[in-house]
Amino acid sequence: MPTGVRLAGARSGAVRRRTAVTVLLSLTASLLVACGSGSDAGGDLTAEPVTLRFTWWGADDRHKRTQQVIDLFQKKHPNITVKGEFKEWNGYWDSLATTMAANDAPDVMQMDELYIASYAERGALLDLTEAKKHLDTADFDQKALATGAIGGKQYGIPVGLGMYSIMANTDLLAKYDIPLPDDTKWTWDDLRNVGERVSKASGGTVWGVQSPGINDTAGLSIRARQRGGAMFDQDAKVVLPPEVATEYWTYIADLAKTGVAPPPSVTIEKASAGLNQSATATGTAAFGLWWNTQLTALTAASGAKLKLLRLPGESQGRSPGAYYKPSMFWSVSARSKHPAEAAAFVSFLANDEEAAKVLLTERGVPANTKIRAAISGQLKETDRAAKEYLDTVPVSDPPRITPNGASTVDAILKRHTEDVLFGRTTPGAAAASFIREVQSEVDAAR
Q1: Do 232 and 402 form a contact (C-beta atoms < 8 A)?
Q2: Number of separate domains in the chain
Q3: 28-42, 82-96, 233-247, 318-332: which has the minimum mean pLDDT?
Q4: Does residue 288 sit within a domain?
Q5: Distance (Å, whole) CA 190 – CA 193
Q6: CA distances from 108 to 51, 219, 296, 422 (A)
Q7: How far is CA 387 from the centre of its chain?
């Protein structure tokens, strides 16, 4: 899956995965209560031989780079052996839940925003503030650290950060003699209008805007944030204003009806085909909503000059809707027998410059500001542009972590967007149904 974003899968698969994780984590919770916690996270590092298990998801390049970093850590800590365990995304979560339920969890794990609350609220993850003696977070922005905090406890250290953005194909704009919009002032209506100019100028061969909504939970959340609202409150209640959701789906439907965005059948087909078949990657749309960290992959796929623009509506909003989204977290098992050593390993992953020069942006633009600056000279032009976007675009506090039970929110959004696009429901009905269904999922997980 692309760094910094989740592409929603089939709803049935997501529901099965959530159900399996929920059932297994319920068993995990009882085991944790019965067995107690591991050794003292704030104690001294031992000089005795220690073995840590470390698990992550990813592809071959990630595995190779991660093993190189493990080797570096072991050279600096010869008494600590780190055993890597890695899987593809689809099998990772069932495997992690199974090992948790069997009281055999890895010491250090790669954690995702969708699932961190499910594990943390059942006592499966260590509060990393207990290990602050060994885990340095001084070079992390507080808004970045807040993405891994629940109830004042730090359950995850953000690895990489992404920000939602508009990606503009400047080659297409130049071809049709359309100036680049001023992204410090533009509105959502401005995006629609400039997109309409592109569609008309191309004679319908290029769409102005790649249709959002299919994998766009962040976009809906940002619309609410720009209006002073949110998707969830701190008590895990869905507080998305119905009028915001209604306007959101009305906007998406209007883009399709007017030809500014592709027709629904094309939108659904491209969303299912993945990044390389998207309208942005194939050069058939001038503007698209993407995470800034996807600039390199989309530039390679499209062969075009792409530019990151700030989100529309930010200058008119009550506060910036933009926020830091963690690509993933480093978390430590609450049942680790070696929490101090596990925390020291996480600190190495997060803070060591030699390790950072191996990992670069494979897991996203580093959340650690010092590390981000240290690797800047090694980055490709597109990765530098993604870093600069992260460094310069204003953000507000991150939204509440996705509550336990809401891990299917992407699939629910996708289904309602399809229903609106194909005229099976109205934007207002979709808004009410979406809010009701997500709340029901959260309530069922309590």
Answers
A1: yes
A2: 2
A3: 28-42
A4: yes
A5: 5
A6: 11, 31, 29, 45
A7: 16
* 144/269 same-domain check: no
| CA gap 373, 370 in Å, rounded | 5
pLDDT of amino acid 38 = 52
For 44, phi and psi rounded to 5 degrees? Answer: -70, 150
Decide if 159 contacts 109 (C-beta within 8 A).
no
List residues bridging with 52 in a β-sheet.
Answer: 82
In a domain, 100, yes or no: yes
Q: Region of 183 please: left (phi>0), alpha (psi -120 to 50) or beta.
A: alpha
CB contact at 8 A, 242 and 229: no
**Burial class of residue 230 in the structure, from the number of CB atoms within 10 Å of its CB (0-12 exposed, 13-18 middle, 19+ buried):** middle
Domain membership of residue 1 (yes or no) is no
Distance in angstroms (rounded) separating the CA atoms of residues 142 and 397: 9
- What's the burial of 183, exposed, middle or buried (CB within 10 Å: 0-12/13-18/19+)? buried
Poorest-confidence range of 45-49, 214-218, 408-412?
214-218
Task: Show the tokens assigned to 113.
Answer: 């925003």
Torsion angle in degrees (nearest 10) through CA of 394, 231, 147, 356: -70
CA dist., res. 122 & res. 206, Å (int): 49
CB burial of residue 210 (10 Å; 0-12, 13-18, 19+): buried
Beta-carbon-side half-sphere exposure of residue 251 (alpha carbons within 13 Å): 23
DSSP state at residue 261: S
The rounded distance, in Å, linking the Cα atoms of 218 and 398 is: 11
CATH number reported for the structural domain that contains residue 218 in this entry: 3.40.190.10
* Confidence category of residue 39, pLDDT binned at 50, 70, 90: low
Is the pTM here over 0.70, yes or no?
yes
Contact 396, 323 (CB under 8 A): yes
In the numeric block, the tokens 């990489």 are attached to 160
Would you state the structure tokens that stand for residue 164, as one six-digit string? 């939602």
Domain that holds residue 104: 11-160+326-392
CA distance 445 to 426: 29
Check if the beta carbon of residue 377 is closer than 8 Å to that of residue 395.
Answer: no
